[in-house]
Amino acid sequence: AYVKLDEIVQHVTFIEDTSSAPELTARERALQSMLFEHLGDFAYSEKRYDKSLEYYRQAFTYDPDNEAMINTVANMYDALERYEEALALLDAHIERFPDSDLTQANRAYQLVRTNSVDEGLELYKRVLADGLPEDDDHVYLEDYIDQLASIDRFDEAHTIVNDALQRNDTRAIRFIKAR
Question: Could you give the CA distance from residue 66 to residue 83 in angstroms, rounded to a whole number?
Answer without folding.
Answer: 20
